[in-house]
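Researcher: Structure for this, please.
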Amino acid sequence: MSSTLAPLWQMAGLLVVHWIGDFVLQSSWMAENKSDRLDALIAHVITYSITLAVGAGVIFGIARPGALVSFVIANALLHMAVDFTTSRIAARFWRSGQWRAFFIVVGADQLLHQICLALTLSMLIKQT
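Model: Predicted structure, token format:
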């Protein structure tokens, strides 16, 4: 694979890993409670971070574990901050039946996560 295309494939791989960690492995309890309960949010972020660590290890290898650990920790903290905010906003719209506003917030949440992954991928590539 061309070295100029490698980051695109790595980002695509991270988006798949993100989807698995943020949606597939998020339990109903986490999804329903992360806007009100810190333990649910923390459980979600831990699940996401473990998934990201495994997925990023597969995508990038583990030749530079320090860079990989920094990448995962940065994304864990960013994921926590984004979800802490967006889940509370989305919950208000969900409870009031404002579906369009709810989905706009969910979309913004995902966009923010993708931006965080792209920025931290850039940092990871520079370190490896």
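Researcher: Any notable elements?
Model: The mean pLDDT is 93. The first helix runs from residue 6 to 24.
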